Amino acid sequence: MKRKIKVIMTDYSDHSLMKEKEPLFFHKDKEGYRAAEANLFNIYDQVRYQEIIGFGGAITQASAVNLMKMAKEDQEAVMKGYFDQEEGLGYSLCRTTINSCDFSTEFYSYDDVENDWELKNFSIAHDKQDVIPMMKKALSINKELKFFSSPWSPPGWMKTNGRMDKGRYLKKECRQVWADYFVKFIDAYEKEGIPLWGVTIQNETHAQMGWESCYYTGEDERIFAQDYLKPALNKAGLGDKKIFFWDHNKERVFDRALDVLSAAKAREALDGVAVHWYAGDHFGALEAFHQMYPEKLILGTESCVGTEKKADYDTGEKYAHDMIGNLNHWACGWVDWNMILDSEGGPDHWKEEQEKFKEKFEKNGCREEDLSESEKEFLLPCMKTGIWVGEAPVIMDCKSKEIKYSSSYYYIGHFSKYIRPGAVRIGSSIYTSSLEACAFENPDGWKVAVVLNPSDISRKLTLRYRDEIAETFLPAHSIATYLFQ
């Protein structure tokens, strides 16, 4: 009996969105069969690489607020669409924020009382309004869902500039209370019935942004991880929580690792590195990191694009390219940014600040010499390049409340729905750089191969597994997931 291959395809040219196509069937790879020497995508399950933890997105306050604005039936559809394994994308790994981020409705922390060294005023009441209900709903759909959390900034009183935005540093004398803050956060969430799998030390440790941000040198991260955060978690009985450093772009990840992991104590404290995509591919940097530190996890923790795109498939292609590149270079998972935004790219309190500044700048005819240093550094560049409006896989129209799904939703689904937690990446090779591909074996033994065709023409493809082949083609600007036992 011929081995069947299930085919799932997204092809905007015929409006196929994660649509199951006619199956393929393997047949014997005949001796001397020259046609089968070309167009090969080889799958080698004898070769095994990293284990996959999961895929998903970020439950930001913006996502939660937008969800609450939807009609009840739309809320159910969106959450099922993201988290249900059978009817949706089967998201298995999600990121949340510790304190506010740019995609919050305002600046907030869980303890704004100056010099509250014992954190007597610590409270997650703010999150109980929107973020926590969304997380609980997600958990009710997928009880195995893993959450990890990232701070964009400590409370302003813990920082050298006295505020959550515009970067600068964590005060050295606040390292212990900030580590204790992590413990309080994890404990408070677990009392809400939401277990946390891990944390990152700081979102984008190498960036000083106009919104919530905090700069860490490699030495800062190393000292905080090994001498404060890990001991605090251990003392609280939370030593099993994963700790990731960097949480920033890939172009400097190897150099940061050499610095942060230069001490044995830090290597014991840290479980891996978290990476974003905003500075280009740099997949070789992940490979270098793995070769130097093979025991450490690599986790893709944020990706996002603006609303401008050349075609419907554009966003999805960018996502799939990054996912395949990361996974083929040892990433154990991949997480998108905001899960839900409105049609104006919000709510985003940093964007609102930009818009207020733009109105002031244009109405009053402000000259650069009239601006404060902060306005010149963090707001004036936005006027020159234009206010950036982010996109999410799910967009809610501000007026009509209509729900739209961008291509990233479906392209992510080609991975998240079919490559399950516990899967192992297996070996593969493909005949042309015009196609991008990766392959996995799920815990139940099913093989999963994802192939992206970002080119303008249809490409022939011959799947080859051991001594069997199956011939097909992949339309221009399409993605397919192939499953077989």
CATH T-level fold name of the largest domain:
TIM Barrel
The H-level CATH homologous superfamily of the largest domain, spelled out, is: Glycosidases
Number of domains: 3
Query: CATH top level of the largest domain?
Result: Alpha Beta
Q: Estimate the helix proportion, in percent.
A: 25-40%
Determine the structural class based on helices, strands and strand pairing. Answer: alpha/beta
- Summed over residues and divided by their number, the pLDDT gives a mean of 95
Shape: globular
Number of DSSP helices?
13
Q: How many extended strands?
A: 22
Through-space gap between termini: 13 Å
Biggest sheet statistics: 11 strands, mixed
Write a concise synopsis of the structure shown.
With 485 residues, the protein is of the alpha/beta class. It is built from 13 helices and 22 strands. Helix 2 packs across helix 3 and helix 5 crosses helix 6.
Give short descriptive properties of this protein.
single chain; alpha/beta; Immunoglobulin-like; TIM Barrel; 3 domains; eleven-stranded mixed β-sheet
Task: List strands and helices in order, with pairings.
Elements: E1 4-11, E2 16-20, E3 24-25, E4 27-28, E5 40-51, E6 54-58, H1 61-69, H2 72-83, E7 93-98, H3 131-141, E8 146-151, H4 175-191, E9 198-200, H5 218-235, E10 242-249, H6 253-260, H7 264-269, E11 272-276, H8 283-292, E12 297-302, H9 314-327, E13 331-338, E14 340-342, H10 349-364, H11 373-378, H12 380-385, E15 394-396, E16 403-405, H13 407-416, E17 424-430, E18 436-441, E19 447-453, E20 459-465, E21 468-474, E22 478-484
Parallel strand pairs: 5-20, 6-13, 7-8, 8-9, 9-10, 10-11, 11-12, 12-13, 14-15
Antiparallel strand pairs: 1-2, 1-3, 1-22, 4-21, 5-17, 15-16, 17-18, 18-19, 19-22, 20-21
